[in-house]
Structures are given as structure tokens and as C-alpha cells.
């Protein structure tokens, strides 16, 4: 297993943790767990997620 | 939209090949050939039997009606289908028919005459379990077959085909009138009494050889109607269908007579291949069967599948594409039950090259339909915004005060408008303005400055119009934006005194011609030729860096020196002969030998058109590769987009302006997207200062941060269509709000900002006074509801 990336919200200076976030594209919404700041809710999306799962879902929705 | 959908009614995709249409049985030749080419004689036999009814008899008698219809007949020799059928019949081992479990139908049909035609009708009707009675005046089946074939052959075939079927046979029973059998309960009668036999009044009625005789439908066919033996059998088979239609609907429908074939032969498939000579006692051996079956080119009207990139890549026939588009466009416009938009991405992969309607024998405009569908999607608000955002913004930048310029030549400010009386008096000395388009100067500003300086040296009254032709808005399906772009050009053109526009990119020509027909246009290349570019002897020294000119070139020497180029005519120049000719003339004068591509200009777009890369990057890459592979030679382009696209692919290519003005060699680097914008601003600055002696007043706001971007990240930004100014926008937000995630291991911050339809993420770290950009990536999804977290509202100001 790849070691988990430690991230700190630069505004609140607290460590980010996995929380659900809501996404929308082409009039559809869905939820997915991503690193967020427990205090302010700031979201972090890694390149791996953006180029992988997110990109796949985008393509699927573009054909749905 | 409807107009385009209706065009598909004429599509010939399902048209049978020439041989099948010529064949009285309409044998499915494509299926037969495929099976026999695999030496699958049993399956091929079945295909043949399904059409011919009595395969052994037909194989023995068939005079090969298909031979003259075969496109090979005009080249070498038609495919010997009859011999293939004979071989198939001889080699097939499983010849018994299939015993289908069909419910018995209590409908009575009489057949008068047990010749081949009557038997043909009987086999079809008995297979469907109708109650069939055959009346024959002699004491045997087969009629005149006895005079033509060995009895064993045809009797065996007849016996085999009727193996599982039952019928009543009345031999030695001559029928002289329908009344003779009227009280037997027959609903239909097939009169197949042979040549000069009695017709019971069935011949020559309004809708064929059939009529109603007191509630009984009487059909006549076969040799009675003057047909030869093989066609008589086909008639019998067809008549069974007409009788069934009558039984089901009460309508008299006589079988249709022959019709011309609407298929289209592909001359490319027809390579001379000599006919195979049979060596197995007049039949083919296995290998000979395969060789002969493969001489068949499987005629089908499929130019679209061959030439249209959208059809070929998606492996979808145009009718299927039409259906997908229909579903996609219907979605969300009405109470459509269809909840899918299968063509949303597909319609955005069309490069708008226009080849589809040129190669289609019915002129079906797939591209125009897909463009209309894009407009429809845009109107509905369901077009994925990310597909065209970059290009639309690029157009807006080109048309902004930072890059656009519309000027009359110095000293020409008060000249009257073209077309006025004063101008007409001046004869044919019309004013021109150079319209280089948005991408030419972006690729290298010298592509604009050099020709413009030359134009001014020839005609000092030549004006300049730097702006985009508006095609990105058209390709995005945004009608409103497109209209304003077109109006902008018209206004500028009028301000310039309605000059003839000298375009450099054929894409601009096509677009202006379509939406601004009032503007007269001419290509830069025709002008260079007509205004005597090569009359200037000083030109020769300019080219030396690109190609050392030998003044007199011969084909042999040119080839040896590697000066042979294939001219890549852009799709938008297809058929524009004066333009194509001018480019070739100039190329020759520049010392190279321009060669034609294998299909001349009959090819699709380089991959730039339609702005397809955001909708489907894999497809865009596939198109470029396909076009780059048309010839091994380096390409000579005269649309800057072709040049840039091929260069990006690594295909050796020069723009004709490279040859003429010595601008770039083969090894030149392409500017990145940020560089392309800077080039446009710089182009405006240089020309304003040099030609009009004016300073550039407004520049785009420079980035407030100093950015360090390595080549890898730059390459990635280019691929993802991220500009330096986009990075700067993200940093502006993350730096002011501190909305960024810190990675203590790497010492980097990562933050994002929504840039229209795109969410752009940037990972960076401080490097002295600057920021080093470590990574950048994008997605199209929006992150929702981030402003409310744990019940508190947070300012995010994206």
C-alpha cells in the first residue's frame, strides 16, 4: 500500500481527513470521499483522482 | 435538423450488391462468398438453398445472370459465381433441409402444373405448412426439366427439398377451368401451366398476371408468362410470397419486376486478378474456391465508412449515427422516453471536413447534421462546456484590443468605399486587405509580417485585418456568439472600405464564403503568384536557408536532393482549383517538386477542424496519424493548422510561406499555447509601430507572480489547454485566501480555481521571489456546496 499523503489545510493549519464531498456535472450530482479540512471544509483532489476516476465519470456522463 | 434526418431515406447502406440484384433469386452473395471462402460448403449451400429453393437444379441450369452485372466484368472477368455454386453443391455434405416446427395452417392453395415453377411455389408454401394441392396433367413431376437435365439430378433435389413437407399431388389431372376446382375450398390458385399453357384469364391485368375470380385469387407465372426455366422457378418462389400476402391481407400484390441496382462500386477495391481456372473436372478445388471467392470485392455502398473519420473511427454506419443523434437531440427537448444522449461526444468529433457528402452518391451531409446537432445541444444548454471553452476564449482574445487590428494602409484613410462610382471609374485597381486569420501569426508572427511587407511593397494601399473568422463559435454550436463574430468582421470590412480580403488559411475562406458572401476573397498564394513574387530576384537568397535553390530543377535531381514534398491540400481547399494550382506553381518556383497524395485532395481534415480534441483526444490523435500516413514524403501545407498539427505529430512539414520567405525550417519548434497568445499581441505591436508609426496602447495584464515552469509541466499544460494566465488566476485566489493544501513532505501547496467550465488545480512551491509550478491538472466536474461546511458558511469566492 502506498503511504497516505499527509496534507494540511493552509488556512486552518489542521490536517485534512477523508470526508464526503459533492460533485456535479451535466446536471447530475454524486458524492465521493476526498481529503477535506475538518474545520473549513476545503477540498483537495489529487491528480490521480482527477485523471482517473473523475475523468472516467466525466466521459461516461458525456455519453449518457 | 429534420432536413438532415430526411436525407438518410436515400442511404444505400442496405442495398444489395449488383450480382444479387441481377440474380432472379437475389442470392445473398456477400454471405455466400464469406462462407465458401472459408470452405464452409454446408453453410454456403444453405444460403444458396434459402434463396434458390432447389439448389442442385439451379446450379445445373443457371446461365449466370450476375456475370454482366459484376464490376469485374469490365476489368478482367466477372467472378464465376455459377461455378462456385456448382462446386458448393458438389462438395456440400449436409444437404437435407431443416424441419422447422411450424403450426399447420388450414388455408388451401391450388397449384396447377408440377413443373419447376409450380414446385417452387409449392416448396415455399408447404414449408410454411399451408395446405397445398398440385394438379399435373401428365404422370410425373418436373415438367420440361425432363428435356434439360438428367432425371436423377432433379428428382433427387425435388425429393430432398420436400423431405419434411406434405402436399396433395393429383397426377394425370388436367384442369381446364377454375370452376373445376372452385368447390374445393381453395383461397388462391397459382397457374404454372408452362409455355403456351392455359392461363384461366390471369394474364395481363392492371397489377400484373393476377386477378380475383369469384373470391379466389388467381396468380399466373413461370414459363407461361414467357420466362426461361430458371426465372420460372424464381417466379414460383416469389409467387408463394404474393399468395401469402393475399392470405394475410386480402391484397393482390404481384411480385415486382427487376429494378436497377443502387449500390456503388469502389474502384479502389478492383485490382486486376485473373479468373481462376477450375482443374477438378470442371469444378474448383478447395484452394481454387478460396481464390475465386476472394476475387469478389463484396460490393457495398460504403464510401462513408472508408472516407468519413467519424464513421470509420466509431465503426458506425451513417444511419446508426443519425439514430444516435436523433436520440441525443430529442433528449430534454420533449417528453422523450429516451434517456440517453449517445451522440453527445460523437457529434463533437466531426472535423467538419465536408468529405462525407462529396463521397456519398446521395450527397448525405453527415457533417452538416452533426454541426446542426451541436447548435441544438447548445440551445438546450446540454453541450459539455469544456469541449469548446478553450477555443472560444482563444477567439475572443484574438478579437480583443490586445490582438485585433483593422487598418487601412498608411495614407489611405480617406479613400472611398469600394463599389462606389468613383471606385468603378478607377477600373479594376481594387483595394485589398490582408486577412491572415487567427492562427497564422500565433504560430509565428513572421508568417504575417513577411507577406504583409511584401504586399505593401507591391500595393502600398493594402490594408490589414487581424481577427478571427469566427469559425470556433460555429464549431461550438454557439449561434449568438457566432453571429456577433460575423458582424464584427462585416463592420471592420466596411470600415476598411470593403476591400478584397486576401486570406492565408483556406478555412477562413470557406467560412467567410458561407456567412459573408458579400466579401470578395482571394488567397494569398494566388496574389503572390499574380503580383509576381518570383519576379523579384532577391527572393532567391531568402530561400537558401530552407532549400538551396538550383534555379533549374529536374525531377531526377529534385528527388535525389530530397526536395520532393507531398502537397497536403487542407480539407477546406478541396476543389478550389485556382488556390491549389497557385500553391503548386509557387512551390515549383521555390525549387521543390510538389507531388500529389494518392487520392489528391480527397481526404479528411488534418485533425484541427471542428475543435475535436477536447471531446475525444484519442480520436483527434487517430485522425492526425491517419492523415500523416498518406505519404512517406514530407508535407507541404498551406493552412497553418495543418502545418502545426502535423508538426506536433512529428511529421516533417513545411508551410508554403516557409519556402517563400525563409521563415522556418523542418526543425522549428512550435510555440506553446501561451506563446501563441503572446505572438498575437506582439504581432499587433510590431505592425502598429512599423507600418503606422503608432505605439501599442494596451497590453494584457501581466501576471503579478513570477512563475517558474519547467518543460515537462509546460508540455502538460499545453496538452490540457492550460495557459500561464490560468495558472496565475489560480494563484491569485490561493495566495489571497490561503485556500490551499500544504504537503509537508514535498513542501508544496495545492489549490484550485474554477475557470469557466474547467476546474484548474495547481501545485506549487516558493522559489525565492518566484513560484515554481510543480504540477497542473484539470477536471470538468464542479465541486459543490463547499461554501457550507459544518453548518457554517465559508467565503470561497471561486
What tags apply to this protein structure?
heterodimer, A: 64 residues, alpha+beta, Ubiquitin-like (UB roll), two-stranded antiparallel sheet, 25% helix, 34% strand, B: 798 residues, alpha/beta, Fumarate Reductase Iron-sulfur Protein, Chain B, domain 2, FAD/NAD(P)-binding domain, 6 domains, six-stranded mixed beta sheet, five-stranded mixed beta sheet, 33 helices, elongated
Description:
The complex is a heterodimer of chains A (64) and B (798). By secondary structure, chain A is an alpha+beta fold. Chain A has a single domain (8-62), classed as Ubiquitin-like (UB roll) (Roll), CATH 3.10.20. Helix content of chain A is 25%, strand content 34%. In chain A, the strands form two sheets. Chain A has a two-stranded antiparallel ribbon. Chain A has a two-stranded antiparallel ribbon with strand order 3-4. In chain A, a hairpin with a 4-residue loop joins strand 1 and strand 2. The termini of chain A are far apart. Chain B is an alpha/beta fold and 798 residues long. Chain B has six domains: 18-95 and 264-293, Fumarate Reductase Iron-sulfur Protein, Chain B, domain 2; 108-249, 3-Layer(bba) Sandwich (FAD/NAD(P)-binding domain); 303-383, no CATH class; 408-531, no CATH class; 539-661; 707-793. In chain B, 39% of the residues lie in helices and 13% in strands. Chain B contains 33 helices and 23 strands. In chain B, the strands form five sheets. Chain B has a six-stranded mixed β-sheet with strand order 3-2-1-4-6-5, covered by helices on one side. In chain B, strand 22 (788-789) and strand 23 (792-793) form a beta hairpin. In chain B, helix 7 runs parallel beside helix 10. The A-B interface holds A 5-11, 16, 21-27, 29, 35-37, 39-45, 47, 50-51, 54-55, 57-59, 62-64 and B 340-342, 344-345, 382, 384, 615, 737-745, 749-750, 752, 761, 763, 775, 777-786, 788-790, 794.
Write the layout of secondary structure elements.
The complex is a heterodimer of chains A (about 60) and B (about 800).
Chain A: E1 8-9, E2 14-15, E3 17-25, E4 28-36, H1 47-62
Antiparallel strand pairs in A: 1-2, 3-4
Chain B: H1 2-7, H2 18-22, H3 29-37, H4 41-52, H5 55-61, H6 81-91, E1 108-112, H7 116-127, E2 131-135, H8 145-148, H9 151-161, E3 168-170, E4 186-191, E5 210-213, E6 216-220, H10 229-249, H11 286-293, H12 303-307, H13 309-314, H14 318-330, H15 355-359, H16 366-380, H17 389-398, E7 405-407, H18 421-425, E8 432-435, H19 440-443, H20 446-458, E9 463-466, H21 471-475, H22 479-495, E10 500-503, H23 506-515, E11 521-523, H24 524-530, H25 539-542, H26 555-560, E12 564-568, H27 577-589, E13 593-595, H28 617-628, E14 635-637, H29 640-649, E15 653-655, H30 656-661, H31 673-692, E16 707-709, H32 711-719, H33 724-737, E17 741-743, E18 748-755, E19 758-767, E20 770-779, E21 782-784, E22 788-789, E23 792-793
Parallel strand pairs in B: 1-2, 1-4, 2-3, 4-6, 8-9, 8-10, 10-11, 12-13, 12-14, 14-15, 16-20
Antiparallel strand pairs in B: 5-6, 7-9, 17-18, 18-19, 19-20, 22-23
Helix pairs in contact in B: 3-4, 3-11, 4-6, 5-6, 7-10, 14-16, 24-27
